[in-house]
Amino acid sequence: MRKQRSSPILSLVMILAAAVVGVPFYYIVVNTFKTQRETSASPLAPPTSLYLDNYVRVFENTPILQSFLNTVYVTAVSIVIMLVIGSMAAYAMLLRTNLINRVAGVLLVIAFLVPGQATLIPVYRILVELQLVDSLEGLIMLYTAGSIFCYFLIQGYLRSLPISIFEAARIDGAGPWQIYWRIVLPLIRPILITVGVFQTMWIWNDFITPNVFISSPDKQTLVLQVYKAVGEYSVDWPAFMTLSVIVLIPVVIFFIVMQRHIVNGLLQGSVKG
């Protein structure tokens, strides 16, 4: 009886939550098919006709393909490095004593809590010395700091697995690398996918890091192209929203395809083996 009463309330809450998310998305999409004047006059009204000049103008005047390839390269390489470092660190700490584990955990939490904006100046000076400013490889190096987040989630997942699996492999003569490669990686595949999706969305949508460390037009990411529509005294809103939709389409498709794996990874990690 209680469930029947709470069901309509839950449905109403979910509808309201969907509206909060859906209305801004609707606002952005419909205005990509309008002129600047139509956008200013009636931003929430549907377009009177299928006006595609905004998309044509954006693809003609903006290096979308180059920026897309830059973003894919930085995202893919960064994700691979983060997952490797995070999974190796989580497995290594699982083999250590409780004292070492706790000390390392405290240090990593402190590092994780430091805002990235607070370290921009010293990090910038370090990259200048390494000659990695204004390079995609420098961006990749910066994003590998996300390995800390990967470490925490993967370690929590590893703790849900029975330790007897690793002990049995060790008794059978398997070394640490063999256990990691043949046992740990296959077992933590669900959480690796989950963490990979989270980090992919973070890197793909990140604006501050490439805006600070990238200046060459041929090395800019997709998010920086959106900012080009913002002038000193005015904003080309149709172009701004068109670029926003172009940036969002790949990550929305990616999230829809991977959402089942996200749920599976989080649920399996919450159940003790």
From TrEMBL:
<feature type="transmembrane region" description="Helical">
    <location>
        <begin position="9"/>
        <end position="29"/>
    </location>
</feature>
<keyword id="KW-0812">Transmembrane</keyword>
<feature type="transmembrane region" description="Helical">
    <location>
        <begin position="237"/>
        <end position="258"/>
    </location>
</feature>
<keyword id="KW-1003">Cell membrane</keyword>
<keyword id="KW-0472">Membrane</keyword>
<feature type="domain" description="ABC transmembrane type-1">
    <location>
        <begin position="68"/>
        <end position="258"/>
    </location>
</feature>
<feature type="transmembrane region" description="Helical">
    <location>
        <begin position="106"/>
        <end position="127"/>
    </location>
</feature>
<keyword id="KW-1133">Transmembrane helix</keyword>
<protein>
    <submittedName>
        <fullName>Carbohydrate ABC transporter permease</fullName>
    </submittedName>
</protein>
<dbReference type="Pfam" id="PF00528">
    <property type="entry name" value="BPD_transp_1"/>
</dbReference>
<keyword id="KW-0813">Transport</keyword>
<feature type="transmembrane region" description="Helical">
    <location>
        <begin position="179"/>
        <end position="204"/>
    </location>
</feature>
<dbReference type="InterPro" id="IPR035906">
    <property type="entry name" value="MetI-like_sf"/>
</dbReference>
<dbReference type="GO" id="GO:0055085">
    <property type="term" value="P:transmembrane transport"/>
</dbReference>
<comment type="similarity">
    <text>Belongs to the binding-protein-dependent transport system permease family.</text>
</comment>
<feature type="transmembrane region" description="Helical">
    <location>
        <begin position="72"/>
        <end position="94"/>
    </location>
</feature>
<dbReference type="InterPro" id="IPR000515">
    <property type="entry name" value="MetI-like"/>
</dbReference>
<feature type="transmembrane region" description="Helical">
    <location>
        <begin position="139"/>
        <end position="158"/>
    </location>
</feature>
<dbReference type="GO" id="GO:0005886">
    <property type="term" value="C:plasma membrane"/>
</dbReference>
